[in-house]
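On clarity, I found the account of how folds are encoded harder to follow than it need be. What matters is that the chain and its backbone geometry are given together, residue for residue. I therefore recommend that a typical entry be quoted early in the introduction. An entry of this sort, consisting of the sequence and the corresponding backbone structure tokens, reads as follows:
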Amino acid sequence: MNQPWIRGCVVQRIRFHGGLVLNLDDNELVIAVPFHLTLPMTAHDDEEAVVIDPKAARDEHRALFDFAGSTCTHASWDEDGSLHVRFSGGHEIHAHSDERRIAWELYGKHHGYAACLARGKVHVVRHDLPEDESAER
């Protein structure tokens, strides 16, 4: 399992533009495939998971993305390209790879680039690590 560098970053902005776009400090996470959004338990509702298609999100789905200002407390991807991100307010995102297209991309101004390519191959380029540590994974 690999650990992206967005852990500890604050969600500055959430928008839909060619997918779900999360701006986290000097980083941008773009998710282009349908994913599971886990909503935290509230005083009136149990925890709930909703499937969101970021390229066709309806208004009632967009309203669920109210966690700007929260901190990314966990971020990882599996060998199959599945991305798992958790936020301090209890929201979670789980996005799986796609057979035909890029599922997600992570851009880091101070770190590099990571993407889940078609069929779950994760490509990583780091410019903040020595060359022997930043090789494609």
